[in-house]
Amino acid sequence: MKPILVALAVLMTASAAGEKSFLTQANRIAWRPITPPGAPAGLMQRLLHDNEDNGLTSAIVKFPKGYIEPRHYHTKCGHSIYVLKGRIKAPGAVWTPGNFHYAAVNERHGPLEALEESEILFYTDGPFDYHVEEK
Prior knowledge:
Blueprint: H1 3-16, E1 32-33, E2 44-50, E3 57-63, E4 68-69, E5 72-73, E6 79-85, E7 88-90, E8 93-95, E9 100-103, E10 112-114, E11 118-124, E12 131-132
């Protein structure tokens, strides 16, 4: 049996057995709007994984050109950002493809400005919450 067919058979067997592992094709997942509380509308996401047991999520998030995400923090999760395409201006740096950023629980970060349409791989390490920093 060819390696790809073996892998597919293993995935189908694991899925049939009730395991939680899976493989998905990201470009087949529809873009959906997402607006964290206090943030402006305009973000889109492809939700790749949403673990209801522990609140961890993985998504591809798209920022339209000119989008500004306010300075904010999270009390229940840290999160990882890996830039896939575009350019995002952050305090002290411009993030470009290949840049990785981790924001820890309760640490303020942002604002972020999309200098061009940008996409990030976004991963939370706990249940997602979002609090805009009061001025």
